[in-house]
Structures are given as structure tokens and as C-alpha cells.
Design brief:
It is built from ten helices and ten strands. With 291 residues, the protein is α+β, with helices and mostly antiparallel strands.
Amino acid sequence: MTGKAVRGPTYGELIRISERDGRWQQVRVDLTRHGVAVLYARLADWRPDRAAGPRLRALLGRDWARYLDLTHPDVRRRFAASRVLLKYAAGQVLDVSPDSVELGYGATGRPYLRGYDAVDISLSHTDDLLLVGLTTRGVIGVDAERADRPMYSSGLGKHVCTPHELDLLEGLDPAERDDALVRVWTLKEAYSKARGLGMQFRFTEFGFRPGSDPTGLDRPDGEPGTGTEWSFRTYVVDEDYIVSVAVGDAGFGGTDDTAASSMLDGGFVDMLTEVLGGDDPQDEEDPWDTW
């Protein structure tokens, strides 16, 4: 049941990207059709062959120094693989090389595409799952968590749930409570990421309805807290992970043409590529082999 959608409004299905020449056409189709594209990969699919090769340095760009500061090997691999996947995805959407995609970060660590705000992005990774969300409709947040996390049974609910959510969780069959809270947790994380607030947003101040379609946000007392400007969706990936998406529609409509060349001055794009160290494609080694 890979990438199966279980709840929510009409987005496309999750798109598995297992190699650099993967299903990018479907990403572009979803972004045009729905204004939203969500893709995922496994860490083994996007793991660098050489820990500090020149190709990886070029791909990470400004993130290279941060990568070198990470000391735990697994953390470094996830950091590198997730950023490279995100840059390949953005490059496909913008019709530029992944090397020329530059990431910036807001005050809470929220990533964005420097110099190009028509496409919003979000990133999540846990264990061996990498997750990327893109939208042309406004803002997006994505989050993933292992489906077997014992969140309710460990007592986490009272720290992250509204009183109304706790009542609903307690009304479920005991065997369903952990799964329901994992779903609620990922929805809250996705929404807070889309808002750019991270953990600064108290999770006990807004809620979702465990076990029902995430049609909107609730206030602590269970009353509706958002209108149609926000949409949510939850997926299950290979029975192992629960993935949630939150999209805030800015109300300006999406764009069918996301190519950077159609939105930016061509001279600026060339200059940006040169400054960021873009390689001559005729002389470049295979980036999938050497990064």
C-alpha cells in the first residue's frame, strides 16, 4: 500500500522518487493540476556514495558548512540526502540544474527557495523516509512519523492535544489510539511548518479530529478554527509511516508555468548559476555516481 491516501481533499497521490531520473513528470503534472505535489524517497535511494565528495559540496551549496558540523553519521546522511532530493525536485519544477537551486532558512528553520517565491517548499525526514512538498497555491507544510510510535500509550497526548482532542481519543478503541495520535501529531507538525512557526506554536491551542477526515482546523473546544483557505491530507506509506500535508491557499491562484526562465531575467539566472559554481554539463561527471 505504497503512498496510499487515506483522508482529505483532492491532491495527487504520493510520488516515489527512487533515482535522480525518477518520476519528475508526475511531479510537474500534479503541481499544474492540483497546485500541490508531494514526493518521497528512501534514504538508500539518495545516500551519497562519498561522504564529502566535490559533487555533494556543489549540491549542498550554503548547506555544506552545516553538513560538516554534523557529527553523527546517520544524521549527516539524512541531512545531505534530504537536501539533495529537495534540490532535484525544485530544479525539475523550475527547469534549472539542482546545483543552481539555493535554499534559505527562516528564523524557525523553515526552508525556502532563494530568489523564487512562486513555489513554496517543505521538508521532512524520519528514519529512512525523506519527504518533500511543493505548492504554487500559497504555503505548504509536510511531516512524517513512524506509524508504530506509541504516542498515546507513552502519555504524550496531554502535552500536545486540546481538551477536545483528548476526549475524542479516549472515545476510540484502545488499539486505535496510538495510530490516531500519530496522525494528529503529523497534521499539527505540518500545519505549524506551513505557518513557519515550528514548535513555537503551542500544539494544545489548535486541534484536529482523530479518526475523521482532516477537513479543517479546530479550536481547543472543538469549534472550527479555519475556513476553506486551509486544506489537509494524510497518507500511509508502505504501512510504516504516516505522512500529513497542510496547504494554506494565499488566494492568488497558482501558476502553470513554474520555469525559472519564465519568471526571472535570463541574465540573472545565468549569473546565479555561475556564482553558485554550476558545472559545464559537457564536462561533468555523472552526478549520480559521484555526487
